[in-house]
Amino acid sequence: MIILSCGKSKKIVDKTAPSNPSITINNGAASTTSTAVTISLSASDDVGVRGYCVSESSTTPSVSDSCWTSVISATSYSSSVSFTLSGGSVGNNTNTVYVWFKDNAGNISSSASDSITLTVSDTTAPSNPSVSINSDAASTTSTAVTLNLSASDDVGVRGYCVSESSTTPSVSDSCWTTVTSTTSYSAAVTFTLSSGGVGDNTKTVYVWFRDSAGNVSSFANDSITLTVSDKITPSKPSVPISSGAISTTSTSKSAMLKLPDTGQTGDYTTTAGEDSDYTINPPSYTDNGNGTITDNVTGLTWQKEDDNIERAWDNANTYCDDLTLGGSTDWRLPSDMELMSIVNYGIYNPAINTAYFPDTNSSFYWLSNTITSDSSTYTLHMNFTHGFIINYVSKSNRYYVRCVRGDITVTGNFTDNANGTVTDNNTGLMWQKDDDNTAREWESAITYCEGLSLGGDNDWRLPNIKELLSIIDTTYFPNTNSSYYWSSTTDADYYTNAWLVYFGDGNDNDNGPTSSYYVRCVRGK
User: Fold this and answer.
1) What is the band of 374 on the pLDDT scale with cuts at 50, 70, 90?
2) Which residue has the higher pLDDT, 488 or 245?
3) Residues with Cβ < 8 Å from 7, sequence gap 6 or more?
4) CA triple 273-505-467, angle to 5 deg
5) What 8-state DSSP symbol labels residue 357?
6) Cβ-based neighbours of 257, under 8 Å, separated by 6 or more
7) Of 15-19, 41-45, 313-317, 497-501, which range is least confident?
8) Across residues 115-134, what is the average pLDDT?
9) 3 pairs with which residues across the strands?
10) At the top level of CATH, which class does the domain 127-228 belong to?
11) How far is CA 212 from CA 86, 117, 178, in A?
12) Nearest to 337 by CA among 472, 146, 162
């Protein structure tokens, strides 16, 4: 500034800093979840505000500091500008922002400040998950094992989920065990493996960890071989004589007095009543040490290993008829019910206990049944990849063969109990005579049977796949729909699917649980 005095000029130096500095974050909001905020600034100066400096440091900047932003000179300055808060730790963080103003002469105002609470969410899942079974032992003979677990989290591990299913659990799943929060978690915990068939069973255990925010880690897993000993003494089969039957199709002795359990042990729903919730007639085999295996449930004796040769159907019959094995010559080609009885629906590729039936091909095997409408051309076969029975197969095709000996299995020996139920005199199972003609989703089918009261009994359940395949008979089950009926058994390969039987031709298949099919309930063992 220049002032004329007595014909002379005098330069006045501006030594007054901007005054009334002011700052407000997000219009005075108390908190935010974002580091991006808007700050409202104002100040005044007798000559003009020329710049401002915004910082989260309370140290007054120099006039040449890089923090300064130039503005158009104004004696009364105000503006709203964007600012990025520094990040913080998970939780609530108090962030204070300071502002200074300067004029052309480089005078710097005092500071003004405002504070806001920055809430930082935890979005990082626990890391480094780890599990080892029995200190990395290769095998065990007990289902009770010890798991060594560990994981880390920047805030704290709050729980773990252990399962034999590889499906990632939701944060609200019932599998979770809560632990005291710690950034580095490790513990040894007990766990019970699902049981398996006699012999060696590979068991895989999966573990996930979560933090307080509900972030779930990736899984870690470990496997161990569970060796199950055969402790069941073979019993001599007995044959019930039907009494009071309306009619029977045969009085011949039947080997299929009991249907072996499917072998399924995994739980795929929390709804009570799926296959794994019932263990009925657990599979039991005896290796006779002579190339033969005795099924202690059905009484049938099986060829331990097939000869790995594919044959046409007629040649398969001849092969079994001519077979001499284990000192016996009365071998034959098995029926669908007989070969189905040794399927283990709890495993796949192949769906059989390979400890007793080694080197079984995950492929097709011949059955003795023929198609009534064209018995000279078509028959059935079974796929041991999963256990599918398939109709209308040309006899000229070439498939594998496993021979059997023992009393021929008879089906169709039923008693109508005249109370809405039918008893299968071969298996001892009691069936709902007429279904209610209502198609249901799979879990609804399970619930329907579990809640059924019929014939004075209330212990009904949804049949497993072996049980459902045993009653392809329309004489004693009138009004049966030529359609699919649900079983309680899930597909071991596609565990979200459940097995079905098509009562139009006796084929089995599987489908997703939200599809709707008919239901026929069963009770007994």
Assistant:
1) low
2) 488
3) none
4) 30
5) S
6) 237, 238, 239, 240, 298, 299, 426, 427, 428
7) 497-501
8) 94
9) 10
10) mainly beta
11) 24, 21, 10
12) 472
Q: Which residues contact 240 (CB under 8 A, 6 or more apart)?
A: 257, 425, 428
pLDDT of 11 over the 70 cut: no
Cβ burial, residue 349 (10 Å; 0-12/13-18/19+): exposed
Specify whether domain 13-120 bears CATH 2.60.40.10: yes
Closest CA to 364 of 419, 313, 326: 313
Rounded CA-CA distance 364/474 in Å is 28
Least confident of 105-119, 194-208, 492-506, 511-525: 492-506
Retrieve residue 451's tokens: 């809640």
Domain 414-523 class? alpha beta
User: Which pLDDT band holds residue 53 (cuts at 50, 70, 90)?
Assistant: very high
- The whole-angstrom separation of Cα 245 and Cα 418 is 10
- pLDDT for position 242: 31
Residue 263 is encoded by which pair of tokens? 């072998």
Average pLDDT of the residues of the chain: 87
The secondary structure of residue 99, as a DSSP letter, is E
Answer whether 152's CB lies under 8 Å from 183's CB.
yes
Q: Which of 74-78, 383-387, 392-396, 421-425 is predicted with the least confidence, judged by mean pLDDT?
A: 392-396
Domain with CATH 2.60.40.10 in the chain: 13-120
Contact 130, 158 (CB under 8 A): no
CATH of 280-405, one of 3.40.50, 2.60.40, 3.10.100, 2.60.220: 3.10.100
* Residue with the two structure tokens 């059989």: 352
